[in-house]
Design goal:
about 240 residues, 4-stranded mixed β-sheet, homodimer, alpha+beta, 9 helices
């Protein structure tokens, strides 16, 4: 490919674009984060909105993240991750590994949807402040039932590997799924510090996975850089009243 | 493959298992719908729950649908559909078509998540009757904003094809995505007849796609058979008070 990848995502938050960025950063792959460029250089939200409005031929995307790879423009987080991992050696090439990785990635993204809906259970068109009682109720169910269910599942996946396997989610092997899992664990620690603190003793393998992944050389450099947007808005938000 | 596929899904509802069934039925592929067998024959919910409890080696699934294909066991609806469509000629073999099909399929499944949450916006662990006011509010936002946004998007995808293209969502070509879209349109007509009636004039291409797909020979035979579970519970539920 002659041109670097172009990633289109809402600027200012890590959001779902971060799942894509982590693969690009961990592999040291060149990319342009288009909406973070100034509008005068073809960037900004205007560039993203143009793409969503269908300013290019071919299949339009409904929502970001969107990846432009030469002539190919694709959307949907799990789809972009699957594509990049296949091309850049972040998933083993055998067929079973690929379908299992995609299964795990989609399960992580199901959790992400539920994390998002704790602060927006009624409508994405209204602010959190307009749906606080409902958010409190949804967050209670999330913290009590759904969060332990999802994280307990991933801990169980890690525990099921034989002792001589490595320590990644995908049959003990490192893959892009571990990058995504690490990001979600970091986001949960920001959004739900009390709930995650209470769960921590039950998740020793996930905590090890997070610590080990965050030490990967290129990834650690990225996490320290100003390319990594801070948590604060978007999916992972810290409202103390939801962290029960 | 010597053994037929085994599909594991909650018996009694079409649910997310239906996306998988439609590909198997449209291609005339042999499969066993395990949880619909009697428990005495290794079926029932017990068989499904055993699989979820990790009674087999390898990567456990978190939730159904689950497909067993020889030595491979995979979960996540979009993942299973992608796998089956690739193997059974329900997606063109070129790379762009496959990533675009998966993009569309994931967008359809995002819509399905939002349909589900209209009747369960607070917690999947509580009955609809325990969250009726919240469901009414979420359904209002869904009908007013989200449903037109999603269906308007798919109508736009169809409208973007050149006049001499075919009429499938994937660049005019028939694919498994059309099977999934047809199922969702049928489910929406059941769950939200008033809202869908009001939207119908704006969705001529989608309505044509649904009618044409439902006439496919093997699919039509399946839809008339007793293998097709009736709508009523699960994702697509008809509560008149939510259909505004």
């Amino acid at each position: 490919m002659n041109q670097p990848y172009q990633l289109y995502y809402w600027p200012g938050i890590p959001g779902r674009g971060e799942f894509v960025r982590l693969i690009l950063e961990d592999t040291g792959t060149d990319y342009v984060d288009v909406a973070r460029l100034p509008e005068g250089e073809g960037g900004g939200v205007a560039a993203l909105e143009g793409l969503l409005a269908g300013d290019r031929p071919g299949l339009p995307p409904l929502a970001p993240p969107i990846l432009v790879a030469g002539d190919l423009t694709i959307a949907q987080t799990a789809n972009i991750c699957f594509y990049l991992a296949t091309r850049h050696d972040r998933v083993p090439p055998d067929e079973a590994s690929r379908w299992h990785a995609n299964q795990l990635q989609l399960t992580i993204l199901d959790l992400v949807d539920e994390i998002h809906d704790t602060h927006h259970p009624m409508s994405v068109a209204e602010a959190y402040e307009a749906q606080r009682p409902e958010a409190a109720r949804r967050a209670r169910a999330f913290v009590a039932l759904r969060l332990p269910k999802f994280l307990g599942y991933f801990e169980r996946v890690l525990a099921a590997h034989s002792a001589d396997a490595g320590e990644g989610l995908l049959d003990g092997r490192f893959s892009y799924v571990d990058l995504s899992m690490t990001y979600v664990l970091q986001g949960l620690a920001f959004a739900f510090p009390a709930a995650m603190g209470a769960l921590a003793p039950k998740l020793p393998r996930l905590r090890q996975l997070e610590a080990r992944t965050a030490r990967r050389r290129k990834l650690a450099a990225y996490l320290e850089s100003d390319r990594r947007a801070a948590f604060g808005d978007g999916i992972f938000r810290h409202y103390p009243e939801l962290d029960v």
